[in-house]
């Protein structure tokens, strides 16, 4: 896993620049590892990669999709949610709108848009999908395919409190600044596992959400 390196303000975080970079680097090709347990999504951290190999042997693959909704303000933001405190999995954690891919979904993109509508009431009319980010694996067996999208301002959200307690926006400039990408670690079955955390005000963004944001930074700004 790469350690964060400050860019000394060299990276531009204007909306047109971000969307132009994203359109040039992303596509809607679905990676085979989304459904194939024999393909392990690479994380860049050997401990995490080993963990994903163990999980793939013990649990069925659980394909999922999330929406990285970049709101097209002059100073762009990313829409995040705080999961409801009563949920069995990841209660109270910060997440992207999204969830598992169902049989009714025609594509991972369709699943991400459906989940965003169900969780926070984000209308598809405001969403301009750009492409898929890299496949991301988690310790719970999920294979997550994020869709990066431009979201036109002016939308009205309706929070589904059975799934989400809150929805909020974080400046893209904060999330794409590697100086804010903290690296934490914990033990998993005798192996040290590293993960990212990006605390913002009272919000603690970490785990898979922070990991996917780091991947977004690496794909769009450092590759």
From TrEMBL:
SUPFAM superfamilies: Nudix. One of its GO terms (molecular function) is metal ion binding. Gene3D superfamilies: Nucleoside Triphosphate Pyrophosphohydrolase. Residues 61-196 form the Nudix hydrolase domain. Pfam families: NUDIX. It comes from the Bacteria. Its cofactor is Mn(2+); Mg(2+). Keywords: Hydrolase, Magnesium, Manganese, Metal-binding. InterPro entries: CoAse, NUDIX_hydrolase-like_dom_sf, NUDIX_hydrolase_dom. PANTHER family: MITOCHONDRIAL COENZYME A DIPHOSPHATASE NUDT8, NUDIX HYDROLASE. This is CoA pyrophosphatase. It comes from Bradyrhizobium zhengyangense.
């Amino acid at each position: 896993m790469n350690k964060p390196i400050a860019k000394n303000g060299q990276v531009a975080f204007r909306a047109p620049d971000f969307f132009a970079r994203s359109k040039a680097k992303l596509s809607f090709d679905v990676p085979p590892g989304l459904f194939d347990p024999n393909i392990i999504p690479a994380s860049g951290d050997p401990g995490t990669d080993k963990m994903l190999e163990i999980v793939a042997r013990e649990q069925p693959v659980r394909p999922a999709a999330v929406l990285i909704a970049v709101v097209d303000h002059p100073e762009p933001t990313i829409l995040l949610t705080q999961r409801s405190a009563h949920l069995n999995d990841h209660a109270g954690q910060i997440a992207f709108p999204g969830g598992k891919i169902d049989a009714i979904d025609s594509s991972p993109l369709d699943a991400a848009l459906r989940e965003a509508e169900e969780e926070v009431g984000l209308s598809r009319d405001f969403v301009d999908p750009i492409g898929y980010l890299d496949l991301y694996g988690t310790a719970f067996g999920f294979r997550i395919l994020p869709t990066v999208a431009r979201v036109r301002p002016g939308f009205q959200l309706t929070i589904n409190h059975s799934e989400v307690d809150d929805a909020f926006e974080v400046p893209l400039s904060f999330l794409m600044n590697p100086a804010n990408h903290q690296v934490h670690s914990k033990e998993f079955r005798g192996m040290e596992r590293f993960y990212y955390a990006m605390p913002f005000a009272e919000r603690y963004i970490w785990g898979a959400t922070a990991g996917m944001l780091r991947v977004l930074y690496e794909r769009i700004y450092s590759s």
